[in-house]
Amino acid sequence: MFVTKRLRSQWSSLLNLPLYVKHYNVAVVGGGSEMGQVACMLLRGEPNITKLTIHDTLPYITGTIMDISHIPSEPKIKGFTGDTNLYKAIEDADIILATGGICETPGIPNKDIFLTNTTFIKNFAKAVSGLRHIPFVGIATEPINTLVPIAAEIMRCSGDLSLNKLFGITGIDALRAQTLYATKCNLNANNCTVHVIGGHSEKTMVPLLSQAMPLVNLDQALIQELTMKIRSGDEIITDAKNGHGPALANAYGVLLFTRAILRALDGKLTPVHAYVENNDFGTSFFSGLVYVDKNGAGEMARYTNLSEFECDLLEESINSLRIAIDSSKKVVEVDH
Known about the structure:
With 336 residues, the chain is α/β, with parallel strands linked by helices. 42% of the residues lie in helices and 18% in strands. Residues 1-12 have low confidence and may be disordered.
């Protein structure tokens, strides 16, 4: 049943200047958020993006757009504000990125954050569903485990049954695992690969240290310690930043996701870590290394010889994912 696919490094071709052929339009919805601003700045430097469109409802978004436009680079900058202009901002995009909503913030209850981000994704998905042709869509707004299925349900209700161009952007999980593994093993991080499967939360991430490249034999205590650090990375950074989340690393993940999709649009089969609709692992959505071409997501990498520890984590992950996905369906049902 399982097909093992290994790569020297899933990011090696994406960390350097991308080899694109054509030029494309990219829209960032929620470009005024902390993560959105950094993502826009990084994307501003991509020479093969013809137009970078930035949308938000925040009052200072006009200044953000002006700020980014002062960076001399190839993409033409266009900005839109307000809910009524959301469709205009995305109607001709090849890639649409959702970076809006709010991160875990001191003084704001988690329930309020969830409601705010859910509303953002609902409006976002409804606008995308109204497009004549569905472009590639990447969602970086948290919690990805729940919000991507919400977007999928809304898009499916509007007639898009394939959803093979809808992705939750989870590259930060693999990047973090790669870096922490390299540090622990005294290796060059650029030469390491650690795949992370399952979901995109502390309880659902499963770092496959048994599949790491190059493989270093770690004792069980070190494996458990390293796994804990990888899974709780968001919390560790948020505590260190006095309640503000890892917007910088997440924005870098958005950049690498965009580079991967640009390569796919050029006709190159490209690997990308993402949370996608996939029924092969016991739940309807799953995160891992997925192979993407110009038509969307294809086969997801699978693995043999997982350790007993990883199998236990995976079982717990699938149970937690089922709960998150079921809750997303209930959220959408309330609107109907």
